[in-house]
Amino acid sequence: MQTYQDYDPNTLPWPELDQPALERLRAVPFWQEVFYTERRAGAIVKAFTETVKDPVLKEAIALQGAEEARHAELIRVMITRYGIDAVELPMETLSADVETAFKDFGFGECVDSFLGFGVFKIARQSGFLPESMFKIFDVLMYEETRHIVFFVNWMAYQQARRGFFARSALPLIAFRYYIRAFKRMLGTARRGAEKNDGREFTATQASIFLDGFTFRGFLEDCYAENRRRLSEFDAEMLTPSFLPQLTETALAALRLWSFRSQPQPSA
Ligand SMILES: [Fe+2]
Ligand SMILES: [Fe+2]
């Protein structure tokens, strides 16, 4: 609540885009999915807020719900302003088990943010769009960082209140939710790939992103960006650790691998 920023998506300093930048923005194949995801996020968090008894938590979670709804509004403003081809999909019926839906959503945000931080950095560095556009989206990234920090602390607090065994089981519970989040993400990617025929990135548009792209470089960006963004928060707070730790291990293995596969210097 202390780090809340007040703004109206309609009055943000949206830049004028020249034709090539406009075409690149319009060619991004996932705006419709992002728009839907933010609307769905707002709906889930709002539904969960109504079940929360603790007044302080209720206020914080309500604020998150309002921010998710504002993200959806921000995407809507962008779609309209720049004439992006994305429609408002009908909202699914949300699960009656709102607490599980909120937890699934929270772990999903941890995964999405970790990867999103890396993608954001690569896109920003490539100059895919003007910096003024990235400044606007940086606000959104900052809010997502606040959400995941809040979420992992809330999750730990919930378990701790249930006693020693529940608290000890947290890593296992978190692991199960992460697996579910990955499965959902793969499902979304598959659906996206099926639906997006005809509006894929053209080779030239994609090459702006993919020039010099390596998986290891991507992981390194995700890891470093995650660390940088999370370091802004109070050091006593928990931060999501599953993906950073997994990535740290993967990067160490990749480094060892590339070291071992170096050709031996000849005598
Ligand atoms: Fe959001
Ligand atoms: Fe969020």
Summarize the structure.
The protein is an all-alpha fold. It is 71% helix and 0% strand. Residues 38, 41, 68, 71, 144 line the site of one fe (ii) ion (FE2).
Compute the number of strand runs.
0
Unreliable residue runs = none
Helix content: over 70%
Unique ligands? fe (ii) ion
Euclidean distance between termini CA atoms: 64 Å
Report the order of strands and helices. Answer: HHHHHHHHHH
Mean pLDDT: 91
Which structural class do the helices and strands define?
A: mainly alpha
H/I helix tally: 10
Shape: globular
Structural summary, described in words:
The model has no long low-confidence stretch (mean pLDDT 91). The chain is mostly helical and 267 residues long. The chain is globular, with a radius of gyration of 20 Å. It is 71% helix and 0% strand. It starts with 18 loop residues before the first helix and ends in a 7-residue tail after the last helix. The structure holds fe (ii) ion (2 copies). One fe (ii) ion binds next to helix 5.
Helix/strand layout:
Blueprint: H1 19-27, H2 31-49, H3 55-81, H4 98-126, H5 131-161, H6 164-168, H7 170-195, H8 203-210, H9 215-230, H10 242-260
Helix pairs in contact: 2-3, 2-4, 4-5, 4-7, 4-9, 9-10
The structure holds fe (ii) ion (2 copies).
